[in-house]
Amino acid sequence: MKPTNHQIRRRVPVTLKKIYPSGPHLSEEAKEIAEQLGVCNFKASNGWLDKWKKRQNIRHMKISGELREVSGTTVASWLERVPKFVSDYAVEDI
């Protein structure tokens, strides 16, 4: 059976946890999936992307302000603490 656009649409991941992928990222992901499925003539056009977003109930959202800001101190603190958190785990388990 030949892969179809429907199969590509189903395999493009819907991200959760308030991560908002960009249009180009989703288009690139869809192209890679199409290639894996052997679909040669697939184009992740803006129209395709808009329809996919509508089916997935994804709206354009701009994140700004405190939701996106992280202080350099916080980043430095986490970079220092993360190795301690993961030191007891095997690399394969991280």
End-to-end Cα distance: 38 Å
Q: In one word, what is the shape? A: elongated
Helix coverage percent: 40-55%
Overall structural class, as computed from helix and strand content, comes to mainly alpha
Largest sheet: none
Order of helices and strands: HHHH
How many H/I helices?
4
Tell how many strands the DSSP assignment holds. Answer: 0
Radius of gyration: 19 Å
Give the percentage of residues in beta strands: under 5%
**Uncertain spans, ≥5 residues at pLDDT below 50?**
none
Number of domains: 1
Q: Let me know the average pLDDT.
A: 74
Descriptive report:
The structure is a single chain. The chain has about 90 residues and is an all-alpha fold. It has one domain. The protein is built from 4 helices and no strands. GO terms for molecular function: DNA binding. InterPro entries: CenT-Element_Derived, Homeodomain-like_sf, HTH_CenpB_DNA-bd_dom. This is HTH CENPB-type domain-containing protein. Pfam families: HTH_Tnp_Tc5.
Task: Name the features.
single chain, 94 residues, mainly alpha, 50% helix, Homeodomain-like_sf
How are the SSEs ordered, and which strands pair?
Elements: H1 5-11, H2 23-37, H3 46-55, H4 72-86
Keywords: DNA-binding
Protein name: HTH CENPB-type domain-containing protein
GO molecular function: DNA binding
Compose a concise summary of this entry.
The chain is mainly alpha-helical. It is built from four helices and no strands.
